[in-house]
Design a protein that fits this description.
5-stranded mixed sheet, Helix Hairpins, alpha+beta, Heat Shock Protein 90
Length: about 450
């Protein structure tokens, strides 16, 4: 019924606007035409005598169904119906607006006021016709509105109500429904679209649920990494505190000449060693910070890995000779690898450095390179099994005393693991019968 009421009100509003606006619009057009004719009349009257003007005015009144009033001094003439002038002055629908002009005839110096108005019977008849038709129009509007409301409820409202019911179930995230509207119009297309959307939403919700679980796992991982970073910086602070304290004590003792520290030539090199250790540690810390920064990207290029390994062996030959350790390359095949050369050089250098530092004098460090694997084995050393899981953690050293002569900063393998992860290359450390073996699997990166 609400649809019928809306249709009736709309139709009545349109009819009412037409009933008011149509006569007014018609009257405005007549006023415009009559105004043009009055202007022509005034121009003509000013070119004739008073007597000839009467004949012209009579003809004008007959042709235009107009009323003209002529007043000049004591001379007053009325041509037509005076009531028309009264209606025009009052702005009624039955006459045009009164138009007044002042003229002089050719045979007189007296100024005459000419007032004109036109009777509008057609406008009155049009308004009366609208009023007479109103009961029949009202009946027609009522019948059409009721019929339209019924057809609308059958053709439009019922499918819309079904779609509305389904939309409510969708808002409750219930995607187990099916919209059974078999139509070829827009509502049918909408129903089919809803069915398709329900299937896709159901699949998307399942995927979203899985993604949510993954996100929770990523959040937990991020929290763990954040905790690890804080632990890393706390440990680094402790690592820096010790050499700084030692250096401060050495410098103060040399300044005040305490005991053996009067011999500055002896202790300045020791202080320099402490500074160099701190410098190396800070460099390692900066490397870690750069590698783990958000948005850090490696620049991969094809590199000759066998050549890079040989260069690193040549670099560490003096350190190995100092410890009487033999650097041996068992097999170095020609291997091309897509990698960041500078970072991969850091990987090989750190592994070789660790192998040399943790090997006793007289032992051997052997490097092997094939298409699928790169290994570095140092003999005469073993890693306790309980320490294996933590070897790639920051600031982890096998040698618990943290002797500066027998080990590095504790960040070497952590940096190695970080760089290899950025390259997508797995690595592993294990004990062998002869010592400790470090290996990098290369086959995943050969594309």
């Amino acid at each position: 019924m609400s649809i019928a009421a809306i249709l009736m009100l709309t139709s009545l509003l349109i009819y009412g606007i037409a009933m008011v606006a149509t006569p007014q619009s018609y009257k405005a057009q007549i006023n415009e035409r009559f105004s043009e004719r009055v202007d022509q009349l005034m121009e003509q009257l000013q070119t004739v005598s008073r007597k000839d003007a009467e004949e012209i005015i009579v003809d004008f009144c007959i042709e235009n169904q107009a009323t003209v009033s002529l007043k000049g001094g004591e001379d007053t003439l009325m041509f037509g119906n005076s009531e028309v002038l009264q209606q025009g002055s009052a702005g009624g629908v039955g006459a045009t607006q009164v138009m007044a002009s002042i003229i002089r005839f050719t045979d007189s110096d007296v100024s005459y006021t000419v007032m004109t108005a036109q009777e509008l019977k057609a406008v009155n008849e049009m308004s009366n016709a609208f009023l007479k038709l109103f009961p029949w129009v009202l009946l027609t509007i009522f019948i059409i509105s009721v019929l339209g409301s019924f057809l609308s409820s059958r053709i439009l409202a019922k499918p819309v109500q079904e779609i509305s019911r389904i939309s409510k179930r969708m808002s409750e995230l219930d995607m187990t429904w099916h919209c059974d509207i078999n139509r070829t119009d827009e509502l049918g297309v909408l129903a089919n679209s809803l069915n398709t959307m329900a299937k896709k939403l159901n699949a998307a919700m399942t995927e979203l649920e899985n993604a949510n679980y993954q996100l929770q796992a990523d959040i937990e991982k991020e929290k763990a990494q954040e905790k690890q970073r804080w632990a890393f910086f706390a440990a680094v602070s402790h690592e820096l505190k010790t050499p700084i304290t030692i250096l401060k004590g050495q410098v103060e003792s040399m300044i005040y000449g305490i005991g053996d520290y009067k011999n500055k030539e002896k202790h300045l090199p020791l202080a320099l060693e402490t500074v160099e250790r701190m410098e190396n540690l800070v460099k390692e810390i900066l490397t870690v910070s750069r590698l783990t920064a958000d948005g850090f990207q490696i620049s991969k290029r094809p590199i000759d890995l066998s050549l890079l390994v040989r260069e690193c062996l040549d670099t560490y030959e003096p350190l190995a000779s100092k410890k009487k350790i033999t650097l041996h390359s068992a097999s170095l095949e020609n291997v091309t690898l897509s990698a960041d050369r500078k970072l991969f050089e850091k990987v090989i250098s750190n592994v070789l450095s660790n192998a040399i530092l943790y090997s006793p004098e007289g032992e051997t460090v052997t490097v092997t390179l094939t298409e699928r694997i790169l290994t570095v084995e140092n003999t005469g050393a073993q890693v306790p099994e309980e320490k294996m899981p933590d070897l790639f953690a920051p600031l982890t050293r096998v040698e618990e005393s943290r002797n500066k002569q027998s080990g590095g900063s504790g960040l070497g393998l952590y940096i190695v693991k970080t760089i290899l992860d950025l390259h997508g290359l797995p690595c592993k450390i294990q004990n062998t019968d002869r010592g400790v073996l470090f290996m990098i699997l290369l086959h995943r990166n050969q594309n």
